[in-house]
Design brief:
It comes from Thalassotalea profundi. The chain is an alpha/beta fold and 375 residues long. The protein has 14 helices and 13 strands. The chain has two domains: 178 residues, Nucleotidyltransferase, domain 5; 178 residues, Nucleotidyltransferase, domain 5 (2-Layer Sandwich). The protein starts with 7 loop residues before the first strand and ends with a strand.
């Protein structure tokens, strides 16, 4: 592929699952994004544990928070420099980095709404020599929106003029959908994606995730537990909505398990059964959000695209739709979100709006992001 100097942007994403740092080098022309190269940089163990602890209990000394932010930003910098080295691209060829940062708390409602992502853009810019765009959510929230999901507008850019009616399903820690109908766009977080499954795997099996759903396949779905979890108010909320690990976490799951054990004290619950039930929770809450569609292609991306058992359940629950991955669009499912934040950086640098009011609930469209220039 040939690209001219000035087309390059880099996107960085480390999602709710905290499985790795995804970095994508893309070429963007006329709002169209093409993946040039990408890497997945594993988190250093101590850094990942510190981030997980912060996301889980929310308590940290201010000094530790500042140091953790710098440490994470240096890890982002190392990942960017590694990608540039592998692809033999100089920092001068990249117009900007779009870095989402690591979400540690998302609270878009209430008297003082906010969404907190850890990122020190100055550290990232100083250590890569590339202008950085960060803090993508704050302006949308300031305008009354949820600040999420932000990727539906990017999804729309991927299919315009080729398949104007499509659904993108991103299954990261949290699952979100983008429903594209020509120029009309809606999108929202359906609820947990991998976050509960991965948390259960780490707690009970000492593994980061259930590869291909192998252990979940050995379990039996606990229907009363599933029904109780699906009865959560979040799943019945209509319209604009977003969520995160601060809501759907192992404490939320433990509460439901305790209530189940109190109601059915005679029933033995195996760890594999809980895991199978969590797979069905993710699949069913996604399917419920898409049940009204027919003859629609659902493009899956994110870590959940690798879970064949989860994809199998989605196919069972959505018989009137074709469930595939973004590979069908020649877009690697692993790097769609990183590509999205490269695109969001491009939109910010070129002073183009990036949010959609029907998706986030903001009062108007806006240019998103804060720019830290390399000078």
């Amino acid at each position: 592929m040939t690209t001219s100097v000035g087309d390059y942007y880099i996107g960085i994403m480390s999602g709710t699952s905290l499985d790795a740092i995804d970095v994508a080098l893309v070429s963007i022309k006329d709002n169209k994004t093409q993946l040039v190269s990408a890497i997945e940089a594993p988190f250093e163990h101590e850094l990942r544990e510190q981030l997980l602890t912060l996301c889980t209990d929310g308590h940290v000394h201010l000094k530790a928070l500042g140091e953790l932010t710098v440490k994470l930003s240096l890890a982002y910098s190392d990942a960017v420099n590694l990608l540039l080295s592998h692809h033999k691209v100089s920092s001068e060829q990249v117009l900007a980095i779009g870095c989402h940062g690591q979400t540690v708390f998302h609270s878009p409602e209430g008297k003082y709404p906010f969404s907190m992502q850890l990122i020190n853009a100055s550290v990232l810019t100083a250590n890569t020599g590339i202008t950085t765009v960060s803090d993508f959510r704050s302006m949308d929230i300031a305008l009354g929106g949820q600040g999420a999901p932000l990727v539906p507008t990017f999804h729309q850019s991927l299919v315009n003029n080729t398949n104007p009616n499509a659904v993108f399903l991103n299954i990261g820690g949290i699952a979100n959908v983008s429903l594209i109908n020509g120029d009309n766009l809606t999108g929202f977080d359906t609820g947990p994606g991998n976050v509960l499954m991965d948390g259960w795997m780490q707690q009970k099996f000492g593994l980061k995730y259930d590869d291909n759903g192998t252990l979940a396949k050995q379990g039996i779905i606990i229907e009363p537990l599933l029904m109780a979890m699906i009865n959560d108010d979040y799943f019945h909320k209509k319209g604009v909505k977003s969520t995160g690990r601060e809501y759907f976490n192992l404490s939320w799951l433990t509460l439901h398990l305790t209530q189940f054990s109190n109601t059915y004290p005679e029933q033995v619950v195996r760890n594999e059964d809980v895991l199978a039930t969590l797979v069905m929770l993710t699949a069913k809450t996604i399917a419920n959000a898409l049940m009204h569609l027919s003859n629609t292609v659902v493009y899956v991306c994110g870590g959940g695209a690798k879970n064949s058992y989860l994809i199998e359940k989605l196919n069972d629950l959505l018989p009137n739709s074709q469930v595939t991955t973004t590979k069908s669009l020649n877009v690697d499912p692993d790097y769609v979100e990183a590509m999205a934040f490269a695109w969001l950086a491009y939109r910010c640098i070129t002073k183009q709006t990036a949010n959609d009011c029907a998706v986030t609930g903001a009062s108007r469209k806006a240019v998103l992001g804060q720019i830290t220039y390399n000078s």
